[in-house]
Amino acid sequence: MRIPGLTGLLSLFLVLSVQAAEVPVLEKVARAYAKRQPALENYVVTVETDRIRQTIEQMTASLPADVPRPPAPVIRKYWKRSSGKSLIRAEGANVFPLMRQMAQRFSRQFALELFDFFLPAGRGGDRARFFDAAEVKVVENDLAGVRLQSVTLQFAEPVDLGGAFYGDGFGLPQKGVRRLVIDVDPEKEVVKRIEITTADDRILTLEARYREVSSGLLPEELMLTSFDGSLDARLETVFKQFDGIWLPVRQTRSIRRGERQDAMTVSFVDYEVNTSFAPEVEKLLAP
């Protein structure tokens, strides 16, 4: 149970032991996420960053000076709402294997899709099965005028969540989860915080901050920290509106693991929205 800070004003605190069918708030929030920006069915966008140029320079540093360097590939990101999947590919002539490996590394870091990262659509049945397998508690409180609900799942044995509650791409473990806590704002219908305890007693916390626009709330910042202080990661996103649809135009991902630090910024340019994909891409994005 979390104790509010001294500035917090706790006016209501209620703990309920519940069954799966009695936890409607998560599915309410899941439906709200699925309905955001309904006009957006898919997109393809070009990913630009200095890291690509730096990587090519490192890969070709041993070549003689008079040997032509390979052209930089075009890195494109594809996303499809119906499958909930995204894909980053290196495209262009003569894309050699190391370039494809680089694209795969990019995919692990920037294929994260903010619009369906939390409580992905179509996974309600999987979430219900986890509710059935866990001891479930709901904490409802009114903290300084903000109503929150906290749903806790305590498992007898560590489980593999398999993406039922949150997506991949930001370092949250899916396997070996012993305890899961999800804090939601039931009025704004967003996830505010996730806390995970793993089988080896590691505790990770993800917090989300949002920007309010005419069409709803945009997840501008994700912050991931570990209880022992060994990890601090952030993903900051700048959005821009295209024909009424808000899409990321820049993301900065920074991470500190112990004494090691790294940061990378990417830009997203030349969006094509609600377009046709090549058959190969469609196959890779299939459910």
TrEMBL record:
Task: Specify the superkingdom.
Answer: Bacteria
Keywords on record: Signal
Q: Which residues form the signal peptide?
A: 1-20
Protein name as catalogued:
Outer membrane lipoprotein-sorting protein
